[in-house]
Amino acid sequence: MTSQAPDGGWGWVVCAACFGVHVITDGLLYSFGVIFVELIDYFGDSVGATALIGSLAPGVCFLSGIFLFIRSLVLNYDYVINNRVTIEYRVHMLTPVASK
């Protein structure tokens, strides 16, 4: 008897791709201090204007999570209301479950 992955075997590829994206993104965000002096010299701008880029980038990343969470709740709510399905939220994950 052979078992087959429910996702067709692509789960590890997706996991590796997400890991790579996070390594590159977090690497750039958290190593901004290393390239800070080079950016000042390259753009010839003030220290404050250059530092604004380094402080806005993580802020946008962290705030986008809140907006995406709210968006997912709104879309799930619209789906549930339009299909006349009763909402039942589980405690450990906020996904609507259809009841019979």
Overview features:
single chain; 100 residues; mainly alpha; 3 helices; elongated
In short:
Helix content is 68%, strand content 0%. The chain is mainly α.
Q: What fraction of the residues are assigned to beta strands by DSSP?
A: under 5%
Identify the quaternary structure here.
single chain
Distance between the termini: 34 Å
Tell the overall outline: elongated
Specify the structural class: mainly alpha
Q: In total, how many domains does the architecture comprise?
A: 1
Give the helix tally: 3
Mean of all residue-level pLDDT scores? 75
Element-level helix/strand string: HHH
Taking pLDDT < 50 over at least 5 consecutive residues as the criterion, the unreliable ranges are: 83-93
Helicity, as a percent range = 55-70%
Sheet with most strands:
none
Report the radius of gyration as a whole number of Å.
Answer: 22 Å
The tally of beta strands, per DSSP, is: 0
